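Example 3.2
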Amino acid sequence: DAFDGATTDALAFLNVTLKTFRQGDEGRIAIYGGSRGGTVALLASARDQRIKRAIVVAAPTDMKSLYQLYPDQFKLLFFNELLSGKITESEARRKFIAISPIHFTEELSKVQLHHDKNDPFVPAEFARRLSYEMKANGKTIDTYFYDEGIHGFWSDKNYWERVQEFIKPLME
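Structure, written as tokens:
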């Protein structure tokens, strides 16, 4: 599946990489993702404490809110198993929560969050709420907002400098 399964796949890939390459260092792992990949990066960070930092770009962090914005687009993605009778409503709720990083702020590693103030697909409120919840739980999050009106990667040169500074402690 696009979120839970992708997170499992990302962590499996991390495990294979660490077993295959002796240069891998479990104490210096960062994960990076944009949009759905940002959600996956956050979920992986919450599930695996070896991930010390997560860099996230324009990520939906609350699937209930995302579904409410785009019910037709995400109906089958989120509810296909429920609608086909493969799982119960209670199981569907659990799965819905399991793919929403907003519910796992206490488990997240350090996060650097980038979001556009006028993102046409994922409202900036997703980033604001995650930032608020992480800070309320005493977690480290650096949040940056941009003003280009896009969903994704910015021409602002400070963007890449911020990412590099964020992971620099892992490189020392």
